[in-house]
Amino acid sequence: MRYIAIIVIALVTLPVAALSAETAEKPHGNGEGFSLSTALFTEITDSFDHPFARIPLFTIGKSTVSVSVTKHFILMPLVGLLVLATMFYLARKLRDPFKKPTRLQSLFEVVLEYLRAEVYEPVLGEEGRRFHLLCFTFFLFILYSNLLGMIPPFAPVKPAGESEAVWIGGAITGNLATTAGLGIITFLVFNIAGMRAKGALGYWRDLVPHGTPGWMVPFTLLFEVVGILSKTIALIMRLFANMIGGHVAIILILLLILKFQSLPIGPVAVLVDLAISALELFVAVLQAYIFSFLSAMFIGLAIRKHGA
Amino acid sequence: MDLAALAPAIMKFGAFIGATIGAGLAVLGVGLGLGRIGSSAVEGISRQPEAAGKIQTNMLLTAVLVEGVGIIALVICILAIVM
Q1: Which pTM was predicted?
Q2: In angstroms, how far is CA A152 from the centroid of its own chain?
Q3: What pLDDT score was predicted for residue B40?
Q4: CA-based nearest residue in chain B for residue A287
Q5: Which domain holds residue A201?
Q6: Among A202, A257, B2, B34, which residue is least crowded by beta carbons within 10 Å?
């Protein structure tokens, strides 16, 4: 138990310490002073302008379309490998079910059992059993990427051939593209699952409740379709905004020290950042749970036959 | 007073005012929503203390959803200031 406490305290205090060191060395804007927005942007967003490598794909006319290997590009397979490693570890422990479970194994099994029994089973039901794994994969992926994003950027890494160094900080879920990818997966899964469960036209017909008068059907259908789109967009934006907001708050408070250039601000800012970092750890876990729970709920709503 | 030369300053001023007022209104809405969630959850627990666990879970879930909307508004305000 005390190891967990040490890890949590380290994860909370280290960002503050490392970010203080980082803002001291951050490259200045263009000589006329320190720009808060550029410092913020280089910390949080993906380093498109200074990629580690460019892998050319094909050429259209005069321009080459290439894949830029940026920091999110490298971090995302890492998170995927972590998810795979977790599941392989758990599966290997299943081979001998009578052995006393190790602590790591029981941690994951408790979480998995709670999610399966209390969260996914009530919303997905009997016919939704094959979606348990998808939702749990969402949970693990978002959890690991959020927690990896809490690790502070210790030092800048200078890509070969680029002028500016890149600070490897921020979570990959702080990138709108990542969360949009996850949201689009949920959107496709719940629409296609609904169409497979109720028939291609029956799914769209079932969006309108049974007893609506004829003249209201187009309006209700329109509202339901807009509702589907807005639920997906809200899913995407919620995860993105939660991750970005936390990092923005932490960095802005530290950059306040530089802005005001006065001594008493220092300890106050660091203490406030400690509190915000602790909140961020909680938000990281909670947002993973929320995303997977909402995905399960949307899929459950799509495949459930109403009036049964 | 050259209006064309003042235009970027006016835009920046407008962005700041809009962003701060927007953020304040968003926080107002979130505060009201979370207050109502908390109050109804506590009232539910006081009526039936055995259901405290379930009520707490649902309260946290709804609070996260309401907070998500507020944070989306916050990101738009930050976007308005930064751009």
Answers
A1: 0.82
A2: 17
A3: 95
A4: B64
A5: 2-303
A6: B2
